Amino acid sequence: RLRLKDMKVGDRILLPSGVGSFGSGGTREDGFLLGSFVGDGTTTPDGLAFVDVWEADFEDLEYIKGAIRRVVATIPTWREYPELDWTDQTPSPNSAKKRIGGRRFGKWVMGLSDDGSLYSLKEKVPRSVWGGSREFVEGYIRGLFHADGSVMMSGHKRSTTLSTRLSSVKPQLLRDVQMLLGMFGIVSRIYSRKPAGKKMMPDGRGSLKCYDCQETFEIIVN
């Protein structure tokens, strides 16, 4: 590996000339659910997993509900927790989001991680994605950008620029996503955006609260 600052005139950077090779596992819908969970999912210590859908994305609720119903149907019912097999809830009366998932959804998500952990999925791209079908990988990227992505336009009328961005506090996850994008011939760059520190942020109850925040990184596709 050669650092950019160590490159010399005449060195070559090799980029894919076309779409890379993919495996055969998973559908686009499966990938979207996994990416949505990684980007904006919630877990509990006893194995429940949820996809959080914010008010601005409520038009996608039925699609996400249908996708989760389909995948949880592949997991046998846990007799000791029948009431937690499927939940569709609003976390609090003033919340601007819906929380969809449950115990069987957590079981399905864990099956896609490298170590059976829900938390490791937010640290890096798992082997299930690296070995997945093109549709599965496309869905995973789509779900990530749907949950934590943004589009920014800047510049003057004669030279407007458009960039697509994905934010995370996990730099390894973004480095992995950068490689996935490269499989489609998409070039991107990662930046450190916000330093770690205390910040006032919404507390989910309509007020602000001071939180210890991690450093934030951003992958940008210009």
Pattern of helices and strands: HEEHEEHHHEEHEEEE
- Amount of beta strand: 25-35%
Distance between the termini: 24 Å
Cα Rg: 19 Å
Which structural class should the secondary elements be placed in?
alpha+beta
Main sheet makeup: 4 strands, antiparallel
Total strands: 10
The helical percent reads 25-40%
* Low confidence ranges: none
Total count of helical runs of at least 4 residues: 6
Strand order of the largest sheet: 1-2-4-3
- Average pLDDT confidence is 85
Coarse shape: globular
Characterize the structure shown.
The structure is a single chain. With 222 residues, this protein is α+β, with helices and mostly antiparallel strands. It is built from six helices and ten strands. The chain has helices spanning 28-40, 61-72, 103-110, 127-130, 134-148, 171-182; strands at 41-43, 49-54, 87-89, 97-102, 149-154, 161-168, 189-194, 197-202, 208-213, 216-221. The strands form three sheets. The protein has a four-stranded antiparallel beta sheet. The longest helix is centred in the middle third of the chain and has 15 residues, at 134-148.
Concise overview:
This protein is of the alpha+beta class and 222 residues long. It has helices at 28-40, 61-72, 103-110, 127-130, 134-148, 171-182, and strands spanning 41-43, 49-54, 87-89, 97-102, 149-154, 161-168, 189-194, 197-202, 208-213, 216-221. The longest helix has 15 residues, at 134-148.
List the SSEs and their pairings.
Layout: H1 28-40, E1 41-43, E2 49-54, H2 61-72, E3 87-89, E4 97-102, H3 103-110, H4 127-130, H5 134-148, E5 149-154, E6 161-168, H6 171-182, E7 189-194, E8 197-202, E9 208-213, E10 216-221
Antiparallel strand pairs: 1-2, 2-4, 3-4, 5-6, 6-10, 7-10, 8-9
Helix pairs in contact: 1-5
